[in-house]
Each structure stands twice: as C-alpha cells, then as structure tokens.
Amino acid sequence: MAAHSCAGCVALQDPHCAWDDVTETCVAVPTKLHDNDASKTLFQDIINGKHKKCKNQQ
User: Fold this and answer.
1) Which strand (E) or helix (H) includes residue 10?
2) pLDDT tens-digit profile of 21-45?
3) Residue 35 and residue 49: Cα distance in Å, rounded?
4) Higher pLDDT, 6 or 57
5) Cα–Cα distance, 37 to 8 (Å, whole number)
6) Residues 6, 23, 15, 43: is their CA dihedral positive or negative?
7) Of 6, 13, 23, 51, whose Cβ has the fewest other Cβ atoms within 10 Å?
8) Domain ranges of the chain
C-alpha cells in the first residue's frame, strides 16, 4: 500500500485496504478478515475518506 499513515490510508477510499491500528500499516482487507478483532483494529471510510480514530487527519 502506498499510504504510510492512518489518515493517508483511509483517504485512499479503497474498499480493499484499511489502516491496521495494531501494526500501524495500511493492509489489504482480505488478509485480516479471519481476525475476530478486525472491526476494532481496522479503520476504513470508503465514502468520506476520514475516520474519527485517525490522528492528524488532513
């Protein structure tokens, strides 16, 4: 993924990637779907490109 921050990753508005708060990386969503805590640790907003849990949003 090209994004190196939470805000940058979420701003991509890509349905196939999300910010992983545990590893602090932009990850492909299918790689984390098996994780029970995925809804708590993956940040994504395809419509607006911003997530309230991302710090220093543009």
Assistant:
1) helix 6-11
2) 999 999 998 766 666 666 778 999 9
3) 23
4) 6
5) 22
6) negative
7) 23
8) 6-43
C-alpha closest to that of 57 among 8, 4, 2, 1: 8
Q: Distance between CA atoms of 5 and 17, rounded to whole angstroms?
A: 13
Q: How many CB atoms lie within 10 A of CB 13?
A: 14
pLDDT at residue 1 is higher than 60: no
Query: Residue 31 to residues 21, 37, 52: CA-CA distances in angstroms?
Result: 14, 13, 23
Is the whole model's pTM more than 0.85, yes or no? no
What residues does 17 pair with on adjacent strands? Answer: 28
| CA gap 23, 5 in Å, rounded | 11
